[in-house]
Each structure stands twice: as structure tokens, then as C-alpha cells.
Structure prediction request, 140 residues.
Amino acid sequence: MKSISKIIAIIGLILFSGIQANAQNAEIQEHNYVVLTKKVPQLKPILLTAEDLRKEDGDHFGQFEVIVCGKTVEELTDAETMAPFLQQAKELGVIINACGFSLKKFEVDASKLPEGIKVVKNGILYDFQLQKKGFMSLGL
Prediction:
């Protein structure tokens, strides 16, 4: 009688564990990404990566943001250079952000940024805030 009770208890634990594992798998969350870069030319491989991750993640692809910091923010005002990046980012749903501290330090007028570039007050802080929300982060 004791052995039957033990077997029933073990089977119950196994079934309960399986139900919990299935519930966790059913709750797969979106995959969100943020890349902090100091070089505008890196936008090309970053956007190619976003495109591949969108395909790979399928329905689980969430947000993809890029933060541009440092002296390279000066290059963000060059509409000709930025046009192909901004077009590709728009098609992919990628958000390109400029670091407000960098804009201020290098005396770049935020109003000269092309449409489609958002300004965040502090790029490094914003990166950490996104990481706290579960974003996977990469700094280049």
C-alpha cells in the first residue's frame, strides 16, 4: 500500500512538472534588442543583423533599437549618408536614437537631424534602462 502511494505521488510530481514546463513554453516572450554604437558606418551591419533576427525570431521579434553616441553624432545630420540607413530602419521597424549628451558635447543641433532619428537624453543610461526591461544589449 505504501509503495502504491509513493508511485502515485511520483507520477503526480512528474505530471505537475510537465504542466509547468508547457506553461512556461507557452509564455515565450518577445526578443528585444539594443545596440550602442560610436560609428555611423556600423549601422549597415547592425541593420542587416536586425533583418536576420526578424526572420529568425518570427512572431517573437520585438523591438530593435540603436543608440548612436560619441563624436559620430555629427554624421547623423548628413541627410545623404543617413537616407539609406533610415529607409532600411523604417522598413525593419528599427528605432535609431541619438544620444542627447553627445549632441550637446559636440554642439550638434538636434533640429538638423533627419526625420526618423529620435533623441534620448543620455544614451548610456537609456541602454541600461532597456536592459532592465529585458533587452539584449551589444555595445560596439
Remarks:
- The beta strands are 31-37, 61-68, 94-99, 117-120, 136-139.
